[in-house]
Amino acid sequence: MREVAVAGIGLVRWKRYGDQEIYDFGSEAILNALKDAGMEWKEMQAAFCGSVYQGTGSGHQVIKEIGMTGIPIVNVENACSSGASAFRLAYQSIAAEIYDIVLAVGFEKMPRGPIPSTAFRPYELKMGFNFQPANYANETVRYMTETGATVEDFSRVTVKNRKNGSLNPNAFFQTPVTFEEVMNSRVVATPLRLLHCCPTCDGAAAIILCSKNKLESKTNRITVAASVLASGVYGGANPVKSAKFPPSFDIVELSAKQAYEISGYGPEDMDVVQAYDTMAPSELWNLEKLGFCKKGEVLKLLKDGELNIDGKLPVNTDGGLMSRGHPLGATAAAQICEIVLQLRGEAGPRQVTGARIGLAHARGAGPNSAVTILKR
Amino acid sequence: MLIRGAPSGSGKMSSKKKIAVEEGLWTIPTSPGEKPHLIGSKCLSCGELYFPRKKKGLCIHCQQKTLEDVLLSAKGKIVSFSVVEQPPAGGFYKGPVPYAYGIVELPEGVEVLSLFTGNLVELEVGMEVELVIEKLFDDDEGNEITTYKFSPTPTN
């Protein structure tokens, strides 16, 4: 397997696009990535397009705005890990020397309100088990029982991520919130309040990958150290767990373990991390499952400010899902873009000083867990 | 063991029928005093337990086709729960709001995702709960759609 480089990235402002469609802002993200890479569309040899709710041939609809060159366009639906799954396919096709230059893109125009997931059986839908904040709330209650974490801890995560998001001109929310505002927001599904839940919005993010010999830039040498996807692990708490045969590794732990083995790095090597924060508490347990500390120990890191941009372990530097917003198919691609910006030293006021290695993690329904490690 | 589950459309002569939200999730008592039970699957090879029962008879843990239906304990304790303050997306759920659901662990070790009934503000992790079959909602034809729920066990 040969080394694969990130040639360019492209983002758009994440917001509610109203009359504009995925082909409007999705194509804009791709054009921004081409500009960033110093490449032309005709150089792309394949395109992998992540989305969840965008219907038939959505990637084709987006790419039609740029140019139809006969290259294979593959649409990837893998819930909230779709963007990272598209990235992984692009990465593999270059590593395996099938192509030299490939586009990975994620885009989504979200319906208003709670996510309308259909990953449930008919009776489960009728019983109301498809309310994602409540499913996370159940996982949260289990986590609180096991670790002693409190609702106050979750509110601190939101405050941190909203502060980071105020430094990100592409984020959906660019205003900080106070601890009191989070604690006083309305209850959605006990113990979670509105400001513990990420907002949905519309958005897109694109990444162009290439073999090293095709890299135009001599200065921005970001390469892919690992791109891993793990799907359902037997017996894990999703939502019920097997009492007789619990897994040796939870799905997130498994994806992290594989990414560390492939990259040769460990959690101690990571300078910047995007950990999946679809609900504020999930950032905490995901950091533990990604191996940054033992179960329950992340609470001290959080309280000591170590997860802040100037801390020992900066997490969700662009505001995470909590600020950036959550257009399902685009989210995991944007996490990777943020790591690229940080490693290039181009993250502006939210720059982590001297970041050289970073990790992006996206947990999706299914379940899926994607871990991407980049280095410079 | 073959267990007959609640059929959908088990109404008698009345125009308003009681219809199970899904066939085969629980048993219908045939005599007074008998209580309903959830129907699960037990693997005779590895011992794994499932709820709901696996319709294909295949154990997804050991891959053997050695599952048999079992009646699960009607009592358990709350592992986690959430009181939901708004209806979920999609319009599939037609029951009351707020409503509560979460995970109940039964004595044999199997975890069940279930609705809760009773005084929702009194729910607690570790609380003893008991299976009940109750109305979920009335459908457009006036039939009562029933479902399984767990209710805090009355303390005597």
* Uncertain spans of chain A: none
Give the amount of beta strand of chain B, in percent.
Answer: 35-45%
The count of strands of chain B amounts to 9
Largest sheet of chain A: 9 strands, mixed
Q: Whole-number average pLDDT of chain B? A: 90
Instruction: Report Rg of chain A.
Output: 19 Å
- Give me the strand/helix succession of chain B: EEEEEEEEE
Overall structural domain count of chain B: 1
Largest interface: A-B, 43 and 41 residues
- Helix and strand element order of chain A: EHEHEHEHHHHEEEEHEHHHHEE
Strand order of the largest sheet of chain B: 5-6-7-9-8
Subunit arrangement of the protein = heterodimer
Shape of chain B: globular
| CATH top level class name of one domain in chain A | Alpha Beta
The end-to-end span of chain B amounts to 35 Å
Low-confidence stretches of chain B: none
Write the topology of this structure.
The complex is a heterodimer of chains A (376) and B (156).
Chain A: E1 4-11, H1 22-37, E2 47-50, H2 58-63, E3 73-76, H3 82-95, E4 101-108, H4 122-126, H5 132-147, H6 151-165, H7 179-184, E5 187-189, E6 192-193, E7 203-211, E8 222-231, H8 251-263, E9 272-274, H9 280-289, H10 298-303, H11 320-324, H12 328-344, E10 357-364, E11 368-375
Chain B: E1 18-20, E2 39-43, E3 49-50, E4 67-71, E5 75-84, E6 99-105, E7 111-116, E8 128-138, E9 144-152
Parallel strand pairs in B: 1-9, 7-9
Antiparallel strand pairs in B: 2-3, 2-4, 5-6, 5-8, 6-7, 8-9
